[in-house]
Amino acid sequence: MAYTITDKCVSCGTCEGECPVGAISQGDTQYNIDADACIDCGTCASVCPTEAIIA
Ligand code: SF4
Ligand code: SF4
Question: Which of 2, 23, 27, 54 has its CB surrounded by the most CB atoms within 10 Å?
Answer without folding.
Answer: 23
